[in-house]
Design a protein that fits this description.
mainly beta; four-stranded antiparallel β-sheet; 3% helix; 61% strand
């Protein structure tokens, strides 16, 4: 049975224009991961056992420019939530099956990850 995840967003400039979107993704499975990265540590997180990812949300409980993950040798700051909807958007991670997080803050950092995927390769 296919799983469905509804998504939506609204961004509005103060006294200015807005951009919004909404939709539903159908997928075979979804996974929710919560991981705490110790202050000053680097930790690898396995994301996907198999299949194609069509949704990836990486949400730091406390956003911080000194909290990051590696994509192709580049540190990507988690100074806010990262939301990738659709296989095209998720492909920006280069097909990564795991991500390496680095916490260069003075406190432990918790990261919530939600991903939707096809269960078959």
């Amino acid at each position: 049975m296919a799983e469905k995840i509804n998504w939506n967003f609204v961004l509005q400039a103060l006294n200015g224009p807005s951009v919004s979107g909404a939709g539903t993704l159908e997928m075979d499975a979804y996974d929710k991961i919560e991981v705490t990265i110790t202050a000053g540590a680097t930790q690898q997180v396995n994301l996907v056992p198999s299949g194609t990812v069509s949704l990836l949300v990486i949400n730091p409980v406390v956003p911080n420019a000194d909290l990051s993950y590696d994509v192709g040798g580049n540190a990507v700051a988690l100074d806010g939530p990262h939301v990738l909807i659709g296989t095209g958007a998720v492909s920006l991670l280069g097909g990564a099956r795991d991500l390496t997080f680095t916490n260069n803050t003075a406190a432990d950092s918790t990261i919530e990850i939600l991903l939707g995927r096809d269960a078959t390769p």
